[in-house]
Amino acid sequence: MQCNVDLSVVIVSWNDKPHLEICLDSLTQDTVGLNLEIIVVDNASSDGSADLVRTRYPVVKLIQNQENLGFARGNNVGIQASFGRYVCLLNSDTKLLDGCLGRVMAFMEENSDIGIAGPKILNADGTHQSSCRRFPTLWNNFCSAVGLATAFPEIKGFSGEHMFYFHGDQIVDVDVLVGCFWLVRREALNQFGLLDEDFFMYAEDVDWCMRCWLSGWRVVFFPGAQAIHYRGGSSVKQDPVWVALTQQQSILHYWEKYHGLVGRLGISGLMFLHKLVRLVSATAAIWCNPSKRTDSRVRVRVLAACLKGIFVCQKMKSA
C-alpha cells in the first residue's frame, strides 16, 4: 500500500499546538480523494502537541524526537519516513484552502520539469504574503543595508532579496520559494538531495532551491492554489537573541558554501553595516519613543549580539 502513495505531507512542529490543529484540520478537508500519508515530526514539544496528534488524528504518522532537531533535520526525518511520489513540506502554522494540495500537484503533473512548486500564500486577513525571493547577491544585500529596498520596494533593481514588486498574480519561475509550503517531486528530490542539516533554521530554503536549479529542475510559483501562513509558528517562541544569531549564522554558512571565504567576508561587511544602522536607530528610539521603550531595548540587545557575533566569527575564521 505504501508504494501507491501519491503524496506525503511532512509537518515539523515544536510547541505549536493551536496552529498544528488548524493545519491538520485543513488537511483533512483539503485532501479528500487524494492517496496520501501525513507525517508529523514533533521536535520534543512540551505543550501536548504529540498527544493531540495521537488522540485526534490517528491516521497521522507521529514521529517524536527526543530533542529539537531544527527545521532542516526535522524535515529530513519526515522525508526519510515517507513514500509518496510527491512530498509536501508544510509549516505547522499554515492552513490549506480550496483543494490547495490537489491543485498544485495537478499543476506539477502537467509540467514534468518542475522540481519544487508552491501556491499563493496569504496573510491571516487574506492579503497577499510575499513568498518568493531572489538569490542573495552583494548588490541586493547592499540595497537592504542602505535602505534602498525599504524606500523603493516596488523597483526590482533596488528591492533586495524580497520580491515585493511581485504581487502573486501569475505563474512564474522564481529563484526561491519560502519554506512554509513546498511541494517537491520525489524524482527531483532524489537528485538534489535532502535539506542541508548545517542550517538549523533559516536559509535552508535558499540552499534547497539553489540545488534544485543546479540539478536542472525548475522552481515555480503557482497562484492557482492558496494557503494561509499565520507566521505564528515555533521560531517566535525562541529567545530573540538566539533566533537572530541562528539566522545570521545560517546566512553566513550559505555564502561560504556558494561563494567561498571572499563571499562570506563581503556579506559580513554588509550585514555589519546594516545592523549598525539599525542599532543606532533602535538606541535613538529608546529616548524618542517612551511608549515603545521595551521593544526598542530588545532590539538593541538583539542587534548588539549580532554585531558581536559577526566580529567573533570573522576573528575565528582568520585565526
Structure, explained:
The protein has 319 residues and is of the alpha/beta class. It has three domains: 197 residues, Spore Coat Polysaccharide Biosynthesis Protein SpsA, Chain A (Alpha-Beta Complex); 26 residues, no CATH class; 73 residues, no CATH class. The chain has ten helices and eleven strands. The strands form two sheets. Strands 1, 2, 3, 4, 5, 6, 8, 10 and 11 form a nine-stranded mixed beta sheet that branches. The radius of gyration is 20 Å and the shape is globular. It starts with 6 loop residues before the first strand and ends with a helix. The mean pLDDT is 91.
Indicate the topology.
Layout: E1 7-13, H1 17-30, E2 36-42, H2 49-56, E3 61-64, H3 70-80, E4 86-91, E5 94-97, H4 100-110, E6 114-122, E7 132-133, H5 138-146, H6 148-151, E8 172-173, E9 176-177, E10 181-185, H7 186-192, H8 204-214, E11 218-229, H9 240-288, H10 293-318
Parallel strand pairs: 1-2, 1-4, 2-3, 6-11
Antiparallel strand pairs: 4-10, 5-11, 6-10, 7-9, 8-11
Helix pairs in contact: 5-9, 7-8, 9-10
**SSE order:** EHEHEHEEHEEHHEEEHHEHH
For the record, the count of structural domains works out to 3
Rounded mean pLDDT is 91
Determine the N-to-C terminus distance: 55 Å
CATH classification class of the largest domain:
Alpha Beta
Taken as a percent bin, the fraction of beta residues is 15-25%
Shape: globular
The CATH superfamily of the largest domain is Spore Coat Polysaccharide Biosynthesis Protein SpsA, Chain A
